[in-house]
Amino acid sequence: MGLSSAGIGSGLDVTNIVSQLMSIEQRPLTALTTKQSDYRAKLSAFGSIQSGISSFQSTLKKLSDPKNLQTIKATVADTAVLGTSGGAGAVPGDYSIEVTKLAQSQKLASAGQLNAQAVVGTGTLTFDFGTISGGTLGTDGKYSGSAFSSNGAGSKQVTIDSSNNTLNGIRDAINSASIGVTASIINDGSNTPYRLALSNSQTGEASSMKISVSGDAALGNLLNHDPSGSQALTQTVAAQNAALKVDGLDISKPSNSFSDVVPGVTLTLKKTNAGSPTNLSVTRDTDAVKANVQEFVDGYNKLTGSLKSLTSYNMESKKGAALYGDSSVRNMLTQLRGVVTGTVTGGASSLTRLSDVGVSYQADGTLKLDATKLQKVIDTQFDQLPGLFAASGASTDSQVSYVGSTAKTQSGSYALEVSQLATQGSQTGSGAASLDYSGGNNALQVSLDGLSANINLRDGSYASTSELVSDLQTRINGNSTFTQAGSAVTISADASGVLSMLSNRFGSSSSISLGGTAASLLLGGTGSATTGLALTGQINGAAATSLGQTLTGASGNAAEGLKVSVSNGSTGARGNVQYSQGFAYQLDQLASSFLGENGMISMRTDGINSSLKKLDSDKLNLEAKLGRIQKQYQDQFTKLDTTMSSMNSTTAYLTTQLTALANNSN
Questions:
Q1: What Gene Ontology cellular component terms go with this record (predicted)?
Q2: Structural domain of 260
């Protein structure tokens, strides 16, 4: 406050008087500042609550997903032979595993060249990938009397022009094309030392390479490679599948890593152990479940402890915490307590309370875990744990399975009725399929599930109908248009050689039809195509929506969002689907409601921010007003000081004059 005066001549202390008056005037400003601090403390407290709820929600995710409650642990005796990782759905047990072959990719090498930078020639390299069958492999690394069958993944081309027509350039062109083949140049130390080495990035017997060259003869002489014909390249490593025995059963896999042999377990082969099987032990990962339940208890106690601390009152200091008296936080505590002391309803599990697994609610509002009781449940009722913690469902019909739900799905038991089962789109021949597709009759247009792709069959003949079926199915299912969409077909032939094709999808979007020059040969005429039928039915008395083999409960119904899969069976009543929301799922949904855009925290913080904004405005207005008041006081008391000084001067003058007058009269 810029103006000050110690008194011009009256001795009046203007500055001190104004200061004391302003200290009284500023009391409302001090109150506003205190209120701002209180609001900011509340805002910080709600930020702490938001962080705490988010942290607790992360803990809940480990129990709200049924898969995390059914995890398994896979242990292998000889880790040098086999690597493992466990997931959900595994069956506990012991397995004997003997690895006799590792999957490997084919490797080829060219004839040696004198100079890697010398011009070879220009043209186009066309790579095809597939299986080599029959014949023999000579000591020179070349096949005789063999056949090559494409895997249907499609051919890949690499252009060799004047910019890359040396051995080095060809290597770089192949690598830059990203076709799944790696090229390198090896110096073997001979008189013509530079050899182009090719390696497929894919393993398995169906990854062998066929290379066709169009262009300069020199380029063809170097790289033409047909396993069923002329071969300019030498095979140094053959493509092969992994071979192993699991409990004595022979298994062949194109990769060294797979997850469909032992359910729920991914196996990674590292080396062979022929004659010395190793043991794989699959057990329930009970340690993970116990750790997750303990983390759930600790997380709940930490969150509720924080909420209580932020709303507490200190009797000694007579002061409340930042959110003392805040009803929204008390409401959060009430809702959290209501969930953990409640009961899971609607499900098939006999576990319905947290106390059933040793989690008890204490008098001080905390949870406590009885590890012994939890262990007993794990040992005897392990399969029922998902129903206690997660959102889960079960069906009384063995051909109906629970798929999922939404936040709007209510717990309960819901009747299921099916009026039409989902079917697959099909294409059936009207006569025996031809085995000869030579002379340009190998072009095929396939329409599958609403998508179309052009596929070429072998330009020649097939030895048998079974070979034709295998090659056709491989080519269709390997086409990128279909693989990217998740579409595939299953093809079979009857004893007369008539083909039947089924889309692997179900429902009204499932279809397959053929066109092109090869279509009539494959179908033995025109054939007949049938589009799949959609699954229709009711859940809880209301018409459900369908997709493939899945029905979803109707909007506005108690079963809204409930998804079930109907794999087979009959039409009509199909029993009941029991659905329940476990404790972790309920708390997760509650936490989301607290943190949501329209949740308690957002509403309270929005209100606080609005109040702070108004306080800022009020403070600015009050500060401006106080500035005017101070100036007014300053002006008033300065004027008073001037007046008093003038009066003092007049008094002094009059006193002097009166004294002089008195002296003169004497």
A1: bacterial-type flagellum filament cap; bacterial-type flagellum hook; extracellular region
A2: 72-102+243-284
